[in-house]
Please model this.
Amino acid sequence: MLQAEGKSFNTGGVGNLLTWSQVAGRNVKGRGVPVALIDSGINARHSHVGPVSGGVAVSLEEGRLVWDDDFRDSLGHGTAIAGIIRAKAPAVNLYGVRIFQRSLNTYPTVVAAAVKWAADRGISIINLSLGTANSRYVPILQEACEYAADRGGIIIAAAGSAAFPGWPAALNCVIGVQAGTGCGWNDYSFHPGSLVEFTAHGFPRSLAGRPQSLNLRGNSFATGHLTALAACLLEKHPGMDVEGLRRLLQEIWLR
Model:
């Protein structure tokens, strides 16, 4: 099984810490960049989300994939990540792909199918706030992620930890990210030579009447923050693939 990456934070050094404006610049909103959020779906009526361009749900029943058009979120996890993306890249074309049904667990075949669905529709950025430590799943995840990368898709995935990212975050065709205790809402950090190259803020947007310390948090949400940054960079550099994005981010941090 694959699951949403939880509350693990990188408590080490923050590396070369930069702010949103230093990396993305100003007046960028992710205009026209399609982003697929593969998660528990999206509640388009939530005040943090706004319009959703479309989506799908996929599940595994009796050994076969089942598809339907209901990508509504009953768990809240995907909606919280969508809120991050919409706050920082408000003009992206956001798609919800529901793979978590009654819990934040799913099968590798479902994840692979969802990734290919997004790739086949020319979606530029695929957010995977999930992962696994089980190496048996590497072949199916690698094949799907490489399929997307070959079609220009950029996959950003949550790492399990700095010491062991897990999969798909550890794949060469994927950009892995972890939550960092030293990263505020607008902060990003690059760790050259690390198994997990990037850290970002590990919380979603705050909710009225609920302390942020009690909110959802962890690597899943750092992934949303890096996805938003990538969408804004892609607005400025259309057609950039995963290797192009990785080089650009490294160049920015190493200036």
Q: What stands out?
A: Helices lie at 20-24, 77-88, 108-120, 138-150, 219-236, 242-253. The first strand starts at residue 2 and ends at 4. The mean pLDDT is 91.
